[in-house]
Predict the structure.
Amino acid sequence: MLRVRRDVEVVSAGRRQGPTTERAAKCRAQVVILGRDDAQAARALLRARPQLVVLTLADAELMAWRYVLTPYRERLGELSPAALTAVIRAREQLPAWWSD
């Protein structure tokens, strides 16, 4: 179904066209779909191209995952030493798949 769309380029894993990150950059991909759940590959893709959406599929389990970096902006208001300290301490931990 995706192969017939003009705005979709399907690259099979069997074709030697360089690493996935280079192929994604070359064709200016917005979405990359991997045929396995590979958190390290997703992390490498997102580090190279933060605007990507990476979908991973696991055929045997009929499961899919979405990896994405989301732009985030929060108004902090007037900044005081106490407010700055609170913001620094409130930083969420990185997910395990990102920090492996």
